[in-house]
Hints:
This protein is α/β, with parallel strands linked by helices. The chain has eight helices and seven strands, in the order ααβαββαβαβαββαα.
Amino acid sequence: MEKVKDSENTAATRVSTRHAPRVLMPRAPQAQAVLLLVVFVTAWAGQQTIQPPREFKEYPGYEYNNFPVPEDYLDKHEWTRARLKYPSFLNVHGYAADGYNRWTVDYPRSDRHLLAGVRRLTRIDTKSVEQVVDLDGEDDVYNWPVMYAVEVGYWNLPDDQIAQLREYLLRGGFFMCDDFHGTIEWENFMRVMKKVFPERRVVDLDNKDPIFHVLYDLDERFQVPGMQYVVYPPHHMYEYDGFVARWEGIYDDKGRVMVAICHNMDLGDAWENSDDPTYPERFADLAYRIAMNYFIYDLSH
């Protein structure tokens, strides 16, 4: 309808100006204006530098320091999922400080299992290894359309990183966070997120939202526990007071989910332990389906 309307307006303009006096710009000033514009654009373009994506790099992990690197890790592909490297508190629960590397929980075993699943379950042309990214003021983060962060109940972003996370999302980036539990971790997560988007609300994602149907129909979702469910009696599904899984998000102005929040669940553990026969298959199955839907949603919305 808009195209028809535009053509009608154009036709009306032609009719109304058909007998209007013609106003011509002198040729010399017109040519000078065009020349000045070309010179300006050329000079501006010459000052711009296109930064290629950074090379793959491994970091010391919270749990793994010698996980095998796939043989094809240097091969060129169109996509991979980025993992956010962020500063964190020692411990938001007030006991046993455990270092500043919470961003590496499950890394890189979880990432590489997940990317193998992307290759198997979708037609996304993905690398076999993750890309670790920083909110360091540089442009590299904008090369990676999907960014994931784990244990965001511990993150402690300074103002400059908060500003760049906002910019990343408003440019069309997709941020998925996972594996944080209970009231204390939720409050610390929201302390940061309210600074990223003070004007936007975190809302429950409706079952009818396309994010739950773009590849798999995921109306029947349930809490995905971490490995503590298998290892530690009494085998609770939850951690701390995070009894109920919460599927939440933040929408942009066009109604697109740009922040996907997985609270009171541990999809990262499910991907990490999907090759462990002691970890229940139904949890890993849902974790992979959620990820595939989220990635396809981001690439198609």
